Amino acid sequence: MTETLPFTEAAACLAQLGHPHRLQIFNLLVKVGADGLKVGEIQEAVGLPKSTLSHHLAELAAIRLISQTREGRAIRCRVEAERALKIKDFMARCCEGLPID
Questions:
Q1: Do residues 75 and 53 touch, judged by C-beta distance below 8 A?
Q2: 46 near 14, Cβ under 8 Å?
Q3: Which end of the chain is more exposed for a tag (fewer CB within 10 A), N or C?
């Protein structure tokens, strides 16, 4: 199992994912897997203006939830799987003890 995130890091990640557009982008990148998507492909999928999308991608990259690599004139975005798993594990541990109905 991956090591757990400290509360401050987990809170920062969850705060960024608390925005609907960033959560949508993150979810899209999780679903497409290791190959990721080019920014134009993300824009087409989520329907955001380029400047708005760039802002959200920068926020996700700053907290290391995604990585961005240049491919010629395009930028490819990928989810940082290890970090995503740490957030998932953090939440699972955080919610231990909840009653199951």
A1: no
A2: no
A3: C
Q: Are 5 and 87 in contact (CB under 8 A)?
A: yes
Rounded to the nearest 10 degrees, the angle between the axes of helix 20-32 and helix 7-17 is 100
Question: 72, exposed or middle or buried, with CB in 10 Å at 0-12, 13-18, 19+?
Answer: exposed
Q: What is the pLDDT of residues 36-74, one digit of tens each?
A: 999 999 999 999 999 999 999 999 999 999 999 999 999
The string of pLDDT tens digits covering residues 71-100 is 999 999 999 999 999 999 999 998 888 887
Which residues are bridge partners to 69 per DSSP? 76
Q: Quick one: which of 51, 66, 57, 47 has its CA closest to 19?
A: 57
User: To which residue do tokens 């802002």 refer?
Assistant: 55
User: Could you give the residue ranges of the DSSP H alpha helices within the chain?
Assistant: 7-17, 20-32, 39-46, 50-62, 81-94
